[in-house]
Amino acid sequence: MAVRISMATMHLFGQIACILSVSAVLLWVVSRLFSRRGDGGTGVQKGYRYAVLITGCDSGFGHHLAQRLDAAGLVVFAGCLFPAGPGAQSLAKSCSTHLKVLPLDVTSDDQVQRAKEALRDNLPENGLWAVVNNAGIADWAETEWNTIKDYSHMVDVNLFGCIRTSIAFLPMVRATKGRMVYVSSILAFYTCLYMGAYSVSKRGLEAFADCLRVEMDSFGVKVCIVQPGNFGNATNIIRMKTGQDMWEKLDDERKHTFSRRYVDRVTESAVGKSGSTNVDAVVDAMVDAILSRRPKSRYLVASSVTDALFLHVCPYLPTRLADAIISRSPMYVERKAMLYSN
């Protein structure tokens, strides 16, 4: 009797799993059909009649996007944390005179307001078409290794910086029925060891962008999220620090718990060169979000085909299954062996 019940239960679970899988596929198909529904609004033609503001143009995605949009014939306002630095100077030399470098620290109310005034005084005839919230930072540490100050700094740049910029420039974008673009990360939905603070900031950013998308639909403004995978090798976004730097932050209890071996192993993994060195796929997605007549709500851009397949499935996995996959990763296995070791 017990065997019959077990088999029946397994059969029931199998049916449920099948129904859920088919439902997920159908929902995905429907979402694809309706992701670019309606007339999609308007696109942008080449020519110096529209402006685009990009934050975080000192390096990485923002730097390359500024060059691409300048070449496409838009007036680019390139926000740079260091306007006299090598990244900003490179843009000034390599791009047309229509590109304007702006000093822009997204954590500063004063700088954001000054940037708003600079745009208002120098807008081309058709106004501000898009704001690309690209400025961001990344740092690594396990949850207990961070201080509240570490979390506050991460969120102030990656989340509040985007909110601060968005609130300032939304009226200009609403006037053109343009675009608000947010550069998030796969770590907004995929759990990764020692990247908790970064994930918190990016998950919050996506929540903000999702709410804004619903609100802006009434005004004809499109809100898009770009989710890059592992492109750390191309952007150098990961903060460089040593195992000794991290070890000195820990109290005696946590030093005993995590061990110096593990801290050094995390350092090696976090600052090691990994990921794609080519940002073209991400920049292509950003350009589509800005210029396409019917942009997607989300652009997931993986650094490899294998990553792409997994990451598209990952958000739909049951939590226990997703956690089980992570717990079998080589780094997680190493971690368990090193805890409480000398």
What does this structure look like?
The protein is α/β, with parallel strands linked by helices and 342 residues long. The chain has a domain at 44-240 and 276-317: Rossmann fold (3-Layer(aba) Sandwich), CATH 3.40.50.720. The chain contains 14 helices and seven strands. Strand 2 (75-80), helix 3 (86-94) and strand 3 form a beta-alpha-beta unit. The radius of gyration is 23 Å and the shape is globular. The model is unreliable at 1-5 and 35-39 (pLDDT under 50).
Layout of helices and strands:
Layout: H1 2-34, E1 51-54, H2 60-71, E2 75-80, H3 86-94, E3 100-103, H4 109-122, E4 128-133, H5 148-176, E5 179-183, H6 196-216, E6 222-228, H7 232-235, H8 243-249, H9 252-258, H10 260-271, H11 280-291, E7 298-301, H12 305-313, H13 319-327, H14 330-338
Parallel strand pairs: 1-2, 1-4, 2-3, 4-5, 5-6, 6-7
**Oligomeric state:** single chain
Poorly predicted segments: 1-5, 35-39
Coarse structural class: alpha/beta
C-alpha Rg (nearest Å): 23 Å
Order of helices and strands: HEHEHEHEHEHEHHHHHEHHH
CATH architecture of the domain at 44-240 and 276-317: 3-Layer(aba) Sandwich
The overall pLDDT, averaged over residues, is 87
Query: How far apart are the first and last residues' alpha carbons, in Å?
Result: 52 Å
Count of extended strands: 7
